[in-house]
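Hey, I was hoping to borrow your eyes for a little while. I've been puzzling over a protein and I'd love to understand its fold better. The fold is given in discrete form, as structure tokens running alongside the sequence. I'd be grateful if you could look everything over and explain what you see. No rush at all, and the record is pasted right below.
>
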Amino acid sequence: MSETATHTVTVSDAAARRIAAILSQTNDADSLRISVEGGGCSGFSYKYDLTSGHEEDDVVLERDGARVLIDQVSLAYMEGAVVDFVDDLMGQSFQIRNPNAIASCGCGTSFSV
């Protein structure tokens, strides 16, 4: 699998294709914002939002028509992570492989550091 890294977060080919497809189908958003929030069964959870525009301190990842925004606070928890999109028998989902996570829940949306 080919991947492109920017600012220590990597967006896989599959994730870039899926993000670009989602963004092409919406008129009011030009980016996918990924953030880390307190909560979830393991302490922190990932949040995904479609948005337009970005904040001054956002890290902007652009690739093949996909645009991902990550704020500086979330970036600290995601350093070295890979954003991927998985389509298998269990379903379709964005998954973040985060080397900083010491534990995660079964659904893969929350983690602890």
